[in-house]
From TrEMBL:
SUPFAM superfamilies: Periplasmic binding protein-like II. The keyword Nucleotide-binding does not apply. It comes from the Bacteria. The lineage of its organism: Bacteria, Pseudomonadati, Pseudomonadota, Alphaproteobacteria, Acetobacterales. The keyword Calcium does not apply. It comes from Rhodovarius crocodyli. Keywords: Signal. Residues 1-22 form the signal peptide. This is Tripartite tricarboxylate transporter substrate binding protein. Belongs to the UPF0065 (bug) family. Gene3D superfamilies: Bordetella uptake gene, domain 1, Periplasmic binding protein-like II. It holds the Pfam family TctC.
Length: 327
């Protein structure tokens, strides 16, 4: 009889363990999906894959990474907003997705301020002005590019990762500051725009630094300038656009942050923030992320909410001046 009671108690404890564990972690005992809004190999996707394994260990559940592409990130944002509010669908969103899209697009599937909840800011990302080394005439530096563009009004074109993307607005801001007439050619994501650059279909591209550094170091592309206010410490040889192009005050950066469905309980958001920050804020991870030219942020939900509140009117003004509008 005593043995049967012990076995029954042990069975009850085993059955209760998942519920106790879920209560302790504030997350359900099922896989977590880390989603990005742009193709594999772009910044959000790279970051998720860097932390995928350590975050899985920290959360105690499997973690998958998915690129849910389309509509300049709107498809991924809508999927996140409509997902179960339990912390198992997590999106790495750019400030362009959260702030620029609403200024560029005549209709949005969701309200990014009310249907998504901020978890944390991740890192700030500058763009670099990229040209191909195979292009003729060669754009050896920014001043040479500007001289050629002025001599050929309306003949040079610039690629972007989509209408209203940060890559588009950085180039539009550059053209306006230099008094250039260039043609905008949007593509469905950065990798496609880079392919156009390599094939000679695009003269220049303002792309985020991470994906192009290996090609730059191998001499396949030239980086004529970076859009941050100061040179990036890990890339000191790349001048700012302000200094290389004689454009004082030129800055055009975006940042990445983590969001979940707005219906997610605060305790779940807090757990995600603590765990993602812990696996990101290590010497090894900092070295890898900052080595791509990014500046670490790692602010909490309130920091991200404040940044977004400031960015929405800022980008609305930039979009209005550029005339960018999605079809």
């Amino acid at each position: 009889m005593r043995s049967r009671l012990i076995l029954a108690a042990a069975a009850a404890l085993c059955m209760a363990a998942p519920a106790v564990r879920a209560q302790q972690t504030n997350l359900p005992n099922r896989p977590v999906l880390l989603m990005g809004g742009f193709p594999a190999g772009t910044q959000g996707d790279i970051y998720w894959r860097l932390i995928q394994e350590p975050l899985s260990r920290a959360l105690g559940v499997p973690v998958a990474v998915e690129a849910r592409t389309g509509a300049s990130g709107n498809i991924a944002m809508e999927a996140t907003a409509r997902s179960a509010p339990d912390g198992t669908t997590v999106l790495a969103a750019t400030s362009a997705m959260l702030a620029i899209n609403r200024a560029v697009m005549p209709s949005m599937p969701i309200d990014t301020q009310t249907e998504l909840a901020p978890v944390m800011t991740l890192f700030e990302v500058p763009n670099v002005l990229v040209t191909s080394t195979e292009r003729r005439p060669a754009y050896t530096d920014c001043q040479a590019l500007i001289s050629i563009a002025r001599a050929r009004p309306g003949q040079l074109n610039y690629a972007s990762s989509g209408i209203g993307a940060s890559t588009h607005l950085a180039a539009a801001q550059f053209a306006s500051a230099a008094g250039l007439q260039m043609v905008h050619v949007p593509y469905r994501g950065g990798p496609f725009a880079m392919t156009a650059l390599y094939q000679g279909d695009a003269d220049l591209f303002f792309y985020q630094s991470g994906p192009v550094l290996d090609d730059w170091r191998q001499g396949k592309v030239r980086l004529l300038g970076i859009t941050s206010a100061q040179r990036v410490p890990t890339l000191p040889e790349i001048p700012t656009i302000a200094e290389a192009c004689n454009m004082p005050g030129f800055v055009s950066t975006t940042w990445y942050g983590v969001v979940v469905s707005a219906r997610t309980p605060p305790a779940v958001i807090d757990r995600l923030y603590r765990e993602i920050r812990a696996v990101t804020d290590t010497p090894e991870m900092r070295a890898r992320i900052e080595g791509m030219g990014f500046t670490m942020m790692l602010g909490g939900p309130e920091d991200m909410r404040a940044r977004l509140a400031a960015d929405i009117p800022h980008w609305a003004q930039v979009v209005e001046r550029s005339g960018a509008r999605a079809q």
